[in-house]
Amino acid sequence: MFKKYKALKWILISVTSIVILLLLFGWWFMSLLPPKEMYANVSKTQVSDLPYLSQNVISSRGKILAIVTSTDKMGDTDKKTGYELTELSRAYYVFEANGFEVDIASPLGGTPPIVIDDEDMGAFDFAFLNDSIAQHKIKHTIAVKDVNTEAYEAIFFVGGKGAMFDFPNNKDIQKVVRELHQDNKVIGAVCHGPAALVNVTLDNGRPLLENKTVSGFTNKEELLLISDAREIFPFLLQDGLVAKGARFNEGTMYLENISHDNNLVTGQNPWSTWILAETMIKQLGYTPKYREITAEENAIRVLQMYEDHGVDKAKQLIEQICEIDRKPLARQLLAMHSVVGVMRGDISRFYNLIGLTAYAKKKTKDIAY
Q: How far is the C-alpha of 268 from the C-alpha of 333, rounded, in Å?
C-alpha cells in the first residue's frame, strides 16, 4: 500500500514524528515545574503560621475599607467572574500586619462571587480562606450604600473583571471615593479595581482622574486573554481611564507596576498587589513592616531583569536569589510567561524564557511558599 501511496506514507511519518516530539516536549516542559507535593501542606496555612502576621504585632492605627465586586458574570456571556482572591488576601494582610483593621464592602453587600486561580495561590491566600474572621467579613460584606467614610483612613478597590460592570456607574462608590479624596484620605486600586474611579466627579465639577498618573489592567493584557473584550465589557479599562484625563502608566505585560500620585495609588495587575498595598502604608505615613519576599515576587524580579537587560543578567539574578540568598523562586511563573510569548507570536521570547525556567530548576532549591 505504502509503495503505491508514497506521499501518504511520508505524511503519516511526519505527523507521527511531530506528535512524538510534542509529547516529549510536553513531558520536558512539565518536568521544569516544581513537584505538586511541594505545596501539599500550603493549603492548610493558618494566620498563626505566618510570622509576618503573628510576630511583632503593631498596635491599632485605624481602619481601611476594601471593596470587591458583586458581579458574577461578564456582561451577557456565561463567563464567570467575581473578585480576585489574591488581590484581596495579600492587601488584606499587608494592612492587618501594619496595624489597620480591614472591613470589606461590595455594591450589593452579602457574599460576593470569588475567582480563585489555583496556579497563583500561595500561603497568604490559603491563610485567608482558613481565617475565620476574614471569612466572616467576606461572606457578610457591607453594602457600599451603608459605608461611613469617616471611619476609614483609606480605601482599596480589589480587582476582578466583575468590577468593570458594577464599579464605574455605582453612585454610592462615587460618593465614597469623592468624600475620602476630598478629606485627603488614601485611595488604592489594583488591576480592574481602578474602574471605580472612572466616573468620579469632584465637588468642583472636575473628574477625579484629570491629570492623575494611574495604572490598571492594560488593553494589551485584556485583549490577549479575551479577544472579544471590546464587545463584552462596557469599555476597556485603559481607554476609560485615559478618556477621563488620566495619564496612563503602562508597564510590561503581566509584570508588577504601580503608579503613585499623591494619595492615589494604582496597580496594573494582580502581581502589583504587594507593592501597591505597602505603598499605601507609606502614603499613610508609616514605614511598612518587614516582609519576606515571596517566591512569586522573586520570579517577577527575574522576568523584569530579562525585559530590561536580557538573558545573561536574568541568569545572574537567578544565581543571586537561589544560590547566594537561598530564597525561593516560582519558576512556574517563568514558564507561564514563556507561554505568553507563544500567545504573542514571539518565539524568541518563548525560547529565552523556557531556557531561564530550566536554568532556575538547575539552580533552585524547591521551597514551598
A: 17
Q: Do 247 and 99 share a domain, yes or no?
A: yes
Contact 34, 334 (CB under 8 A): no
In tens, the pLDDT along 143-187 reads: 999 999 999 999 999 999 999 999 999 999 999 999 999 999 999
Amino acid identity, residue 247? R
Instruction: Classify residue 37: in a domain, yes or no.
Output: no
Distance CA 343, CA 224 (A): 7
Where residue 260 sits, what CATH number does that domain have? 3.40.50.880
The mean pLDDT of the chain is: 91
CA distance 331 to 33: 7
Look at residues 199, 206, 314 and name the one whose alpha carbon lies nearest to residue 255.
314
How far out from the chain centre does Cα 133 lie? Answer: 23
Exposed / middle / buried, residue 38 (Cβ in 10 Å: 0-12, 13-18, 19+): middle
Express each pLDDT in 48-61 by its tens digit. 999 999 999 999 99
Query: pLDDT band at 37, cuts 50/70/90?
Result: low
| Cell numbers for 132 | 475565620
Query: Residue 12: what pLDDT?
Result: 59
Domain identity same for 198 and 243: yes
> Does 338 share its domain with 247?
no
Could you give the CA distance from residue 12 to residue 308 in angstroms, rounded to a whole number? 44
Domain that holds residue 296: 292-369
